[in-house]
Amino acid sequence: MRRANDASRHDKVALALAGIAALAASLSLLGWLFEAPTLASFGASYAPAWPLTTTGYLLLSFAIVMAILGRRGAMVAAVAVLVLVAMIVAESGLGIRPGVDRLLFPEQLARSTAANPGRPGSNSLLSFVSLAAAILIARRQSPLLDRVANVLAALALCLGLYSTTALMWIHHAALLNQFFVAPLPAGLASLAIACSFLWWKHEAGWTGLLSGDRMRQPLGWLVLPILFVLPAVPVVLEQWSIRTGSAPPEGAALIAILVNMLIIGTILLLVSDRLTRQRLALGDLSAALDSAAIALVRPDGTILHWTRGCAELYGWTDSEAVGRNKHELLQSRPRRSVGAELPLADGDAEFVERSRDGTELNILERRRYLRRSDGDDVVVLKMLDLTSRVRAEEELRASEHRLAIAAEVNEIGVFEWDVATGRISWSPGSEQRLGLAQGTIDSFDAWRDHVDPADLVDVMASIDRVVADRLDRFAFQYHFLSPDGPPRILEGTSRCLFDERGNLIRTIGSLVDVTHRNRRETEMQLESIIRTVPDATIVIDDHGIIKSFSPAAEAMFGYSAASMIGCNVKILMPDMFASGHDAAIARYLKTGERKVIGVTRELTARRADGAQFPIELNVGEARIGEERIFTGIVRDVSRRLFEEQRLSELSAELAHISRQRGMSELAADLAHELNQPLSATGNFIAAARMLIEQGGGGERVADLLHMAEEQTQRSGDIIRRLRDFLAKRDIEMRSESLDEVVRDAVALVFFGTRREEIELVYELDPACDRIFADRVQIQQVLVNLLRNAVEALRSLDTGGPRRIVIQSQSKPDDLVELAIMDTGPGIPEALSEQVYGRFSTTKSGTAMGIGLSISRRIVEAHGGVLTAENQPDGGAVFRFTLPVFKELEDDPEHLPD
Hints:
Layout: H1 2-33, H2 37-41, H3 51-69, H4 73-94, H5 106-110, H6 122-138, H7 143-169, H8 184-200, H9 217-229, H10 232-244, H11 249-291, E1 294-297, E2 303-306, H12 308-314, H13 318-321, H14 326-329, E3 333-334, E4 347-354, E5 360-370, E6 378-385, H15 387-409, E7 412-418, E8 424-426, H16 430-433, H17 444-449, H18 453-469, E9 473-480, E10 488-498, E11 504-513, H19 515-532, E12 536-541, E13 546-549, H20 551-557, H21 561-564, H22 575-578, H23 581-591, E14 601-606, E15 612-624, E16 627-636, H24 638-665, H25 667-693, H26 698-726, E17 734-737, H27 738-749, E18 759-763, E19 770-773, H28 775-794, E20 803-811, E21 815-822, H29 851-861, E22 866-870, E23 876-883
Parallel strand pairs: 18-20
Antiparallel strand pairs: 1-2, 1-6, 3-4, 4-5, 5-6, 7-8, 7-11, 9-10, 10-11, 12-13, 12-16, 14-15, 15-16, 17-19, 20-21, 21-23, 22-23
Helix pairs in contact: 1-3, 1-8, 3-4, 3-6, 3-8, 4-6, 6-7, 6-8, 7-8, 7-10, 9-11, 10-11, 25-26, 27-28, 28-29
């Protein structure tokens, strides 16, 4: 990683230097474009930079940039520069004037007084060839060619350095040596491009070209730059002395000679010191090599040189070993499938060899074949003692074998995850134990495809937590999706390894298949729950076969668990339900449509003695491993139903008493209401009798009798309503018209009431007219609420609005809401919290205060809710909901469907 970062940083620096070269060439071209000689030559007008020269350096800048970026354009640009150089050299040799040098800005070049205007000088041409060839050679990606390319780039660097140095100190063209001096823009561009190339190929160096002996390379590193750079120093000093007048020309030449002598002496001193150091290093190297087990042998194995290290390793001295065949002396035999004969090639081989005292050694023999020009070839042998390592390897293999056997017995899998590459490696047999071929899960993506998505989220969250907190280990459990079977439950732990920056780089862990263990634990937990639950618990499989029968079930049904396990659960059902039970389970397994699971149902069960009794059943579904089970919780509700029936009878009795008391309070109004039709009937009959006695017409008598009949029927209707309302009978739920129920209740309440005092408004929604209710009980609720409203309105002062609004509207969940609203004083705040309590009333006298309590129980028995509140504009509103009548289909099924 660090090497990659360093390489990237060097590339950026090289690109920046190439950009500087391109900038210098571009500025010079701009000087020609805008006819600014100072800009074109960077102030050195006596050494102008010709357009073709700057164009060549622009092409070289582009080529080095493309080479650094690895693009093909580098070769095209470099070849173009070489073609340009070839054309210029050819024209110079053939004396062509002008030539390609006049392609750019010919008119400006024609006005120049310089010799060969527009044609690049020798310095520039040599730099062109050196840099273009270096770029082309570097693309071959050979270490040797890279060194050659660096030498060419260093030559261009020196040319640019000489030229730039001279132009900075000398200000007259006549003093310039045209071979070494190029225009200032060209010199700067050559310097920048050469530095860019050397910075890019900094690892190649050039010392490998100096000698095959590595001991001389450090000297080459020092001498080569000195030979290139230092000769420029005397020239600079000489010219500086002449320019400043600090010395006459003869003195300046003498100074140059002295400086050259100083340079030569320094170089000789450095060379002498380097040779001395190399001699000492060579002695140290020889001693170090003699301590190693190294031997020189002929191709046939005859020993030519035997080091002290070989004598210490094998026990044979130099005098005893030289001249003998190595493999015969040491009784060598191949440790692996490698022949004992020494091959005529480089390579490694492992042998078992015997030392002088008879000890067997495991030896790694490394060979290098050296061919000599005189034909006397030599093989260099380096021996490494692997005895301890081989013994450790054998012990490790034995330990790994024992570990593999233990892992196989306990079904443990060991894995290693390389986070950077995503590669996962497994211990032998791990994937096979999961039902997969070896190598199936070789990457993180392949592993992820075999993990249940819900568990994958948890595992990834654990990994994120480990990375955030830099934990050294973590545990996991997930469902493994096997391609040829049901999911398996895998559990394990993993050790986490981080780099110095805190990044997770590797994890090593183990996992085990805990499917059967979890199933046993689940079964034990389920059995424990079944034995402790007070209700009867029965567990069946997807064929209806009983798998568990709790003690509570034994007491409830009269069967023992031993006799029931393995039997079909139909034995506990009446015949009418048992016949369709198996089909219901099969239908549920096929469609997945739930009708019973998660729903509480009241059904009928059968005991061992054949007696049937009511039960409450709740069914749940679960999976234990590969098996699907259904758990039924059964509760005997015989006592509860008996108590509910008794409570219902008591409630009906109380409601009957309430209705009777209500009608007794209306007795005066009732007598007045019945008196009117009875009096009218008597009058009509008396008039008819008088007409008959007077001999009147029959038509008039018939009309009077018809009117008497109507009044009699009116009295009969009043008496029928009272009889139905006051009758003590069982609850009867059926479809009723809400409009008719409301109007009958209104007729009961308003007997003899002065209707002109109270305005009655009906706002009944015909779309929700049919309700499923007991007619008399709902009328009792309405009578109670309407009577309360009438009493509240009669308590108002004269002049205020007296209005009762009866409103109905549809509500969600198949309900209809009925509201009784009045404009009375409303509900007193003191009674707002206990308005539904027994013996709570706002009336005076003998009122019992149980009307709203009974009304609330009636509404809740119908599955509705009764609420009361005050209206913002005054008055109270009572609302209650009732079920809408719907055609229901009876569903006899009582188990999963």
